[in-house]
């Protein structure tokens, strides 16, 4: 039997298409038409992944995401409206793992499903004894501890993996497509806006001034580097 996926969306036509596609891919799929029903079904039986629409009447996707994340680390893929970066950032803050913007094609969604299931089932990546410390930011990849002036910073798993990849390659320029492949997988290699959003979100958490980055530098139009501006 394949992985079990819960689809929570009040758009019955779209939901039926997604369910049909996923079942055709060998997954066992359960659908819910609103947030309350989705949460009840999630709590009643185990799932390996949740596809969650944000804009639903009653209990919206943000609240469903918050409640699911409070009790489980199951991968959550959000479905968001086009141009809703604020919604994406809020969802990531609440613990969502990924997002797909409506309208979307079904094949790319299937690729995202496969990638998220693969990451969830893979062992946690290890980055060795890599550390960085200054008067503001401390990073210890061995203990997976990030702190700002001694206070722990909470990162999502993907934010941590992105930062860890940059820190491990400190001073080197990582081309955006290669960075997407290393952190998220080959399915994401062309999603440059996806990486830009994650970089922006990560800067909000670790930079003293996100608009003038001290740590994560843009290098040319398509590259990034962890190169602290005041490092020797």
Automatic annotation (TrEMBL):
Molecular-function GO terms, alphabetical: phosphorelay response regulator activity; transcription cis-regulatory region binding
GO cellular component: cytosol; protein-DNA complex
Assigned keywords, A-Z: DNA-binding, Phosphoprotein, Transcription, Transcription regulation, Two-component regulatory system
Residue ranges of the annotated DNA-binding region, renumbered to this chain: 128-228
PROSITE patterns xref list: OMPR_PHOB, RESPONSE_REGULATORY
Chain positions found as 4-aspartylphosphate: 53
GO BP, sorted A to Z: regulation of DNA-templated transcription
The keyword Repeat belongs to this UniProt entry's keyword annotation: no
OmpR/PhoB-type domain ranges (all copies): 128-228
Top-rank taxon: Bacteria
Presence of the UniProt keyword Nucleotidyltransferase in the record: no
Start and end residues of each Response regulatory domain: 4-117
SMART domains: REC, Trans_reg_C
UniProt cross-references to InterPro entries, sorted A to Z: CheY-like_superfamily, OmpR/PhoB-type_DNA-bd, Sig_transdc_resp-reg_receiver, WalR-like, WH-like_DNA-bd_sf
Protein name: Response regulator transcription factor
Origin species: Litorilinea aerophila
């Amino acid at each position: 039997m394949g992985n079990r996926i819960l689809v929570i969306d009040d758009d019955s036509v779209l939901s039926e298409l997604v369910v049909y596609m996923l079942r055709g891919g060998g997954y066992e799929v359960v659908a819910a038409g609103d947030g309350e029903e989705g949460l009840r079904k999630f709590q009643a039986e185990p799932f390996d992944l949740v596809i969650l629409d944000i804009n639903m009447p009653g209990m919206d996707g943000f609240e469903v995401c918050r409640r699911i994340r409070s009790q489980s680390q199951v991968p959550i893929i959000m479905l968001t409206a086009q141009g809703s970066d604020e919604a994406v950032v809020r969802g990531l803050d609440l613990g969502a793992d990924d997002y797909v913007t409506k309208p979307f094609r079904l094949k790319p969604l299937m690729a995202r499903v496969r990638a998220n299931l693969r990451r969830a089932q893979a062992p946690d990546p290890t980055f060795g004894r890599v550390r960085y410390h200054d008067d503001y930011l401390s990073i210890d990849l061995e203990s997976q501890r990030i702190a700002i002036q001694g206070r722990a910073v909470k990162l999502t798993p993907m934010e941590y993996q992105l930062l860890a990849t940059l820190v491990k390659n400190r001073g080197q320029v990582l081309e955006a497509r290669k960075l997407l492949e290393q952190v998220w997988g080959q399915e994401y290699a062309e999603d440059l806006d996806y990486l830009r959003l994650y970089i922006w979100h990560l800067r909000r958490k670790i930079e003293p001034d996100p608009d003038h980055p001290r740590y994560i530098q843009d290098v040319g139009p398509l590259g990034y580097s962890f190169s602290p501006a005041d490092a020797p």
